[in-house]
Design goal:
The structure holds two protein chains of two kinds. Chain A is of the alpha/beta class. Chain A has 18 helices and 21 strands. Chain B contains eleven helices and eight strands. The chains are: A alpha/beta, B alpha/beta. The structure holds thiamine diphosphate and iron/sulfur cluster. Chain A: GO terms for molecular function: 2-oxoglutarate synthase activity.
C-alpha cells in the first residue's frame, strides 16, 4: 500500500480538465485526505496540452513528486507528456473509442484500462459527463469510496439542479462498475478516508481571503495570469464586507485607483504579475514618496516581457527591490506556503499602515495555482489583528500642527513615521505629492529639508527592523553542517526533500525566508554552516546574491528556470549533487 | 454644512508661481468659489491634480489633495470617491495631462460616471515643458517640436466624452469669472461625472489661442436656443467646428452616479479591530 497516491487527468484545453481534477481533489479533501494539486497548462484556451495533477495522502503533502500512479488520458499526448512519471504498474484510463485514442499504445509494463467513457456517459444522460465516468473508474482502481465523489459532485452541481447531480452520480457509478466487471487486476491502492474536515484552496485564494480578513475594502486590478484569481476571488465577496472591486482599464489605472482609495483611508490593494508591475512602477514611486499605505501583490510568472505566462519563475525579486527611479523605501514580503499567503497578506496590510509605505506581497505561479488542504483552524479569524498605525483624529491632531497651524503629514519624527489624517478630519486638510515636500506636504527644493525627508522615510526601515519579527522559518536538523536557504513557494518541496535526505542519512538545516526586505540577518547561520546552498526558481540567483551581499561570502546555488517548479525528489538529488561537488573541490 | 465657509478658505499659503496673467488663476478662483458656494469646506474636499502648470493647482488650494503622476489623476479621483462617497472630489489637469497621456483614463472615467468634477485647464499647449504641441493644438500651430504644426487634427474632448456616455459636458472660459464659476457649480452639483473643459490661456507659449481670441469668438449657449438635456442638440454643438462655445453642453438628468448604481456607499476608512466577524464564513466556502 503506497503512502501517497499520485493521480492526473490530462487532455486538450477545453476538455474540462480543470473541473475534473478539482472534483476529484474536492472528493479527497472531503474524505479527510490531504491533497496537493498542480497544473500543467499552456497559454491558450482551446487546444494545447493541459493536465491537473493530484497528490494525496493521509499525512500532509506539500509538494509534487516525479510519480504518477493513475492517469486519465483524454489524448495520446497526455501519455507522452507524462511518460517520465509513469512507472511499472501505473494505470492509464482511456477511451479506446475516441478517434484520437484508437491507435494509442500503452507501454507494456503499465496497465491500460480501456473504458468507453463517452458511451457510458451518454447512457447516464450526456456525453459531457465522460470525465465523471473516468473519475468513477479511478475510484474503483484506487479503492476510494465513491460516496465521497458523490459529495463533491453535489457541491459542484447542486445549484444547477438535482437531476444533474443524479446523472453525474450515475455516470460515476457506470465508470466504477465497468472497471470492476471488465477487469480483474489486483490494484495496490487503498485510499482510506479519515474523520478530518479539510479546506482546499490555492495561493491566490488565500491572498484574497487574507485581504478580506485584514479589512481590505478596495481592490482595483487588470486581469493577468497568474494573478487574476485574486480578483476573481474578491469579486462578489468583498461587497459582503462593505468593499468594492473595480476591473480597471489597465494597470496604470488600477494602482492609481488603489492609491486614491488608500488616501481616502481605506485598506486598498492591487494585484498583478511582472508586466503589470512594470507599468505600475512610476506610481509606485509616488506611493512611497507620498507615504501612502498600499499592498501591491505581484504573482510572479516567467519573464522577461511576456516570457512564459503560464510557467513558474521567481525572477522579479530585483525588480521589486530596486524598480523605479530614485530611491524609495518599500517592504517586500514573500509568503512561503499557501497558508502563509493568508497570514502574510494580513501582515502586509498592517505593515503598510504602520509604516506608511508600499508593501510588495509576492507569490509565484506555482503557489498561486496549486491547491492544498488545510485544517480550517489554520485560518483562525480570531487571530487576525488590525493595526492602523499613527492615525490622528479631531482630538489628537492638534499635536501635529506646524507653527503656522497647518497639519504635518510628513512630520520629522525619530521613528520616521508621521501622523496620518483621513479626509474629513477637521483641520487635517493637506497635500500629498510625489514632489519632494516639507513637513506639511508642500513642495520644496530646500536642500536641508530634502535630506531630512529622505532620512525620515528611510528611518522607517530601521524602526521596522527593530520592532518587527523578521525571523525565517526553520526546519530540518538544527545542527547540520549543510544550510539550505530558500524563499517563495519552494518551501514545500524542500521540506519533503529534507525527509528524503534524512532517510539517506544526510542532514540539512533549512531556512525559509518570507521577508526579502527588510530581511533577517542570516550571517551567524551561514557562518555556522560548512556549506550554504540557496534554492530558487531563477537563473541568476537573485536571493543568493542578497545573501552573499549580507554575509560577504560565496554561497552555492540551485537554480531552476525551465518554467517548472521544484519537485521534492528532484530537489533532494540536486542537494546531494551540490554537496558531492563541494567535497570533490 | 457651515455657511461661513468662504472661498479664501480654499486658498493655501503658497503663492502661485504661474506666469502673471496665466489663465489658470481664473480657473482656480472659479473652482474655489464653486466649492464654497456649493457648501463644501476644505476638510471634506479632496482635490486630485495632474502634472503640468495646471497640475500645480493642488498646491495652491487648501484641501485634502494629491498631486499625482502625469495623466493619472482621474483613476486617483475614482479611488478616493469609491472609498469615500462622503467626500467631495475634484480632479484637475491640463489638456496634455488629460487628453494625451491620460486619454485612456478619460474615456473610462466618463463611462464609469463616478460622482466627481473633472476640470481640464485647456491652453492648447504644453506649458510646463515649455511650449510643445498638445492634443488640442490647432493643426497648423507651430511649436519647437512641430515647426510646421502638428499636422494632425486636434482631439475633440467633448465629442470623446459624449461618445463615451458622458452625463455632464460643459465648456467655460477662465476669464469670464462669473460664468465660469456658475458652470463649475453646475458640474459639482451634477450627480455623476461632471466634465468641464476650461479655456485657460497660456500667455507665455500660445500667442494664437489668446484671451482676445476666446473673448471674440465665444458664443454663450445660454444666449443660444440650446437645450442641454437634448443629446442631439449637444451633438450639434460639439461637432460644430465653426464656433467656440461656453456653457453647459449636455446634462443627463437621469444620471445615476457609480456609487449609487453599485451600492458603493460605505465610508471605507472605518475598520473593526480584528477580522470582520463573518469572515469566518470565508473559510467554510473552501470545504
Ligand atoms: C511620464 C511623464 N512624461 C512626461 C512628463 C513631462 N511633462 C510634465 S508636464 C507635461 C505636459 C503638460 O501639459 P498640459 O497637461 O497641457 O499642462 P500645462 O502645463 O499646459 O498646464 C509633460 C509632458 C512627466 N512629468 N511625466
Ligand atoms: S507657462 Fe503658460 S500655462 Fe504655464 S504658468 Fe505660464 S502662462 Fe500659465
Amino acid at each position: 500500500m503506497a503512502a501517497d497516491f499520485n493521480w492526473a487527468v490530462g487532455g486538450e484545453a477545453g476538455d474540462g480538465i480543470d473541473s475534473t481534477g478539482k472534483i476529484f481533489a474536492q472528493a479527497l479533501s472531503r474524505a479527510g485526505r490531504h491533497v496537493f494539486t498542480s497544473k500543467d497548462f499552456a497559454s491558450r484556451i482551446r487546444g494545447g496540452y493541459t493536465a491537473y495533477k493530484v497528490r494525496t495522502s493521509v499525512d500532509k503533502v506539500q509538494s509534487v513528486v516525479d510519480r504518477l500512479d493513475v492517469l486519465i488520458a483524454l489524448t495520446p499526448r497526455t501519455i507522452e507528456e507524462n511518460l517520465d512519471e509513469l512507472h511499472e504498474g501505473s494505470v492509464i484510463i482511456y477511451d479506446g473509442e475516441r478517434t484520437t485514442m484508437q491507435d494509442v499504445e500503452i507501454p507494456e509494463e503499465m496497465i491500460g484500462l480501456d473504458v468507453p467513457l463517452k458511451s457510458l456517459a451518454e447512457e447516464a444522460g450526456g456525453a459531457i459527463m465522460r470525465n465523471v465516468v473516468a473519475l468513477g473508474a479511478a475510484c474503483e482502481v484506487a479503492e476510494f469510496p465513491i460516496e465521497n465523489l458523490d459529495s463533491a459532485l453535489e457541491k459542484r452541481f447542486k445549484d444547477k439542479g438535482q437531476k444533474l447531480v443524479d446523472n453525474n452520480k450515475e455516470a460515476a457509478r457506470a465508470g466504477q462498475s465497468y472497471v470492476a466487471e471488465e477487469y480483474d487486476h489486483e490494484f495496490d491502492y487503498d485510499l482510506e478516508t479519515t474523520d478530518e474536515d479539510y479546506v482546499l484552496l490555492n495561493g491566490d485564494e488565500a491572498i484574497g481571503m487574507g485581504a478580506i480578513a485584514a479589512g481590505c475594502r478596495f481592490y482595483a486590478g487588470y486581469p493577468i495570469t497568474p494573478a487574476t484569481d485574486v480578483m476573481t476571488y474578491l469579486t462578489g465577496r468583498i461587497e459582503r464586507y462593505g468593499g468594492h472591486v473595480v476591473q480597471a482599464e489597465d494597470e496604470l489605472s488600477a494602482i492609481n485607483m488603489a492609491l486614491g482609495a488608500a488616501r481616502g483611508g481605506a485598506r486598498a490593494m492591487t494585484a498583478t504579475s511582472g508586466p503589470g508591475i512594470d507599468l505600475m512602477t512610476e506610481t509606485f514611486g509616488l506611493i512611497a514618496t507620498s507615504e501612502t499605505p498600499l499592498v501591491i501583490c505581484n504573482v510572479m510568472r516567467s519573464g522577461p516581457s511576456t516570457g512564459m505566462p503560464t510557467k513558474q519563475e521567481q525572477g522579479d525579486l530585483n525588480g521589486m527591490l530596486y524598480g523605479g527611479h530614485g530611491e524609495v523605501p518599500r517592504f517586500v514580503l514573500a509568503p512561503t506556503t499557501i497558508d502563509e499567503c493568508f497570514w502574510k497578506t494580513v501582515e502586509a496590510f498592517n505593515l503598510a499602515e504602520k509604516y506608511q509605505l508600499p508593501v510588495y506581497l509576492t507569490a509565484d505561479l506555482s503557489m498561486a495555482v496549486t491547491e492544498q488542504t488545510f485544517s480550517p483552524e489554520t485560518f483562525d479569524m480570531d487571530e487576525v489583528e488590525i493595526e492602523r498605525g499613527k492615525v490622528v483624529d479631531e482630538t489628537t491632531i492638534d499635536d501635529h500642527m506646524s507653527d503656522s497651524g497647518g497639519f504635518q503629514p510628513h512630520e520629522i519624527t525619530d521613528d520616521g513615521i508621521s501622523p496620518r489624517a483621513f479626509p474629513g478630519t477637521a483641520d487635517g486638510a493637506h497635500m500629498s505629492t510625489g514632489l519632494e515636500h516639507d513637513e506639511q506636504g508642500r513642495r520644496t527644493e530646500d536642500t536641508e529639508m530634502r535630506v531630512e525627508q529622505v532620512d525620515k522615510r528611510n528611518r522607517k526601515v530601521e524602526t521596522a527592523r527593530e520592532r518587527e519579527d523578521w525571523s525565517p522559518r526553520e526546519f530540518g536538523d538544527a545542527d547540520a553542517d549543510t544550510l539550505v536557504i530558500t524563499w517563495g513557494s519552494n518551501e514545500g518541496a524542500l521540506a519533503e526533500a529534507v525527509e528524503f535526505l534524512d532517510e539517506e542519512g544526510i542532514d540539512v538545516r533549512v531556512l525559509s525566508v518570507p521577508y526579502v526586505f527588510p530581511r533577517p540577518d542570516l550571517s551567524d547561520d551561514v557562518a555556522a554552516a560548512e556549506t550554504t546552498v540557496v534554492v530558487e526558481c531563477n537563473e541568476r540567483g537573485q536571493f543568493a546574491d542578497l545573501v552573499e551581499h549580507d554575509v560577504l561570502e560565496r554561497v552555492d546555488r540551485i537554480n531552476k528556470y525551465n518554467g517548472v517548479r521544484f519537485k521534492a525528489d528532484e530537489l533532494a538529488d540536486d542537494i546531494k549533487a551540490t554537496l558531492a561537488e563541494g567535497v570533490e573541490a | 454644512m457651515s455657511s461661513d465657509i468662504r472661498f479664501t478658505d480654499f486658498k493655501s499659503d503658497k503663492q502661485p508661481t504661474w506666469c502673471p496673467g496665466c489663465g489658470d488663476f481664473g480657473t482656480m478662483n472659479g473652482m474655489m468659489k464653486g466649492l464654497a458656494e456649493t457648501g463644501n469646506d476644505p476638510d471634506n474636499t479632496f482635490v486630485v491634480a495632474g502634472i503640468g502648470c495646471s497640475g500645480k493647482i493642488g498646491t495652491y488650494m487648501h484641501s485634502y489633495a494629491l498631486h499625482g503622476v502625469h495623466g493619472r489623476a482621474l483613476p486617483v479621483g475614482t479611488g478616493v470617491k469609491m472609498a469615500r462617497p462622503d467626500i467631495e472630489v475634484m480632479v484637475a489637469g491640463g489638456d496634455g495631462d488629460g487628453y494625451s497621456i491620460g486619454a485612456g483614463h478619460f474615456v473610462h472615467a466618463v463611462r464609469r460616471n463616478v460622482d466627481m468634477t473633472y476640470v481640464v485647464m485647456d491652453n492648447r499647449i504644453y506649458g510646463l515643458t515649455k511650449g510643445q504641441a498638445s492634443p488640442t493644438s490647432r493643426e497648423d500651430f507651430e511649436t519647437s517640436t512641430s515647426p510646421d504644426g502638428p499636422k494632425q487634427p486636434p482631439v475633440n474632448p467633448h465629442a470623446l466624452a459624449l461618445a463615451s456616455g458622458a452625463t455632464f459636458i460643459a465648456q467655460s472660459f477662465s476669464s469670464d469669472a462669473l460664468r465660469h464659476q456658475e458652470i463649475i457649480q453646475e458640474a459639482i452639483e451634477h450627480d455623476g461625472f461632471g466634465f468641464v473643459n476650461v479655456y485657460s490661456p497660456c500667455v507665455t507659449f500660445n500667442d494664437v489661442d489668446t484671451y482676445d481670441y476666446f473673448r471674440d469668438s465665444l458664443v454663450d449657449l445660454k444666449e443660444e436656443d440650446h437645450d442641454p438635456t437634448d443629446r442631439e442638440d449637444a451633438k450639434d454643438v460639439i461637432l460644430d467646428n465653426e464656433k467656440e462655445h461656453q456653457g453647459v453642453i449636455y446634462r443627463d438628468e437621469s444620471s445615476v452616479p457609480y456609487h449609487e448604481q453599485h451600492g458603493v456607499d460605505e465610508d471605507m476608512s472605518v475598520l473593526p479591530d480584528g477580522a470582520p466577524e463573518s469572515a469566518t464564513d470565508l473559510v467554510r466556502e473552501f470545504y
